[in-house]
Amino acid sequence: MIRKNTIKKYVTKFYAFLAVFFWASAFVSTKIVLQAGQLSAMDLGTLRYFFAGVLLIPLAILFKIRLPDSRDLSKFAISGILGYTAYMFFFNTASTMISPSTASVINAICPGLTAVFAYFLFSEKISWKGILGLLISFVGILFLSLWNGSFSLNIGILYMFVAAICLSMYNISQRSFVQRYNAMETMTYCLLAGSFFLLFCHGKSLLLIPSLSQQMWGHLLYLAIFPSIFSYYCWAKAMQSCQKTTEVTNFMFVTPMIASLLSFLMIKEFPTWGTYFGGSLILLGMILFQIEKTKK
User: Is 0.90 surpassed by the pTM of this model?
Assistant: First the structure.
């Protein structure tokens, strides 16, 4: 029994690491696509999830997933809008204004934001040390915003913060599914819902497909397969097999390091001193928050 639990714990960590690794790579790949100038933030989000949806349908058939209960359709729609439609708009827009390193450290505040929403929605308690951790992280975000010396908010950081809020609300929405749907089913219906709303809002992006360069095709397919389908599947698997949520969410703190390394290797972009200082405060606050949460 002990050996079985140990293996299960390592499998959970493996799934969680795969998810955050490919999510980290999305920060860099998205930056490359948007810098090329062929696609806008909404074009990229729409095409990314259009291709993900097209690729996911035969996989869903292969996995023989069950049809969702009609009572859950609205929940899948809300979850899809939060985790895919809205998140992708704010994330891609932020990527045109800030570096992958900066975006990834702001995204690391998601576990704390998720806990705040859980406090208001499910009355889950947050200790004073947890609150202190959240405050330290928010100071880090403020530090990033004002690093250039101006007393005006960096709009890219604001967009990324809203994206983190959307992802946190998506995490909360997953509670409605984990007991009744498996990882493949949850990921499929949320992604398809999010893709539908992206197409509804910006379907004209499909007209750009014939003019895409080979480089754009490569990045779009990569983003559709790995950070979209594979990562969300691994994340759902990790969440379903873990004993404590913190076993999985703690891996989000690795994302900034992976994103910074990939950013340097792929586009020779290195974090600024502002990212180092502000990012350190964000991660310090979140680590303090998670340590306190793990004790409970």
Answer: no
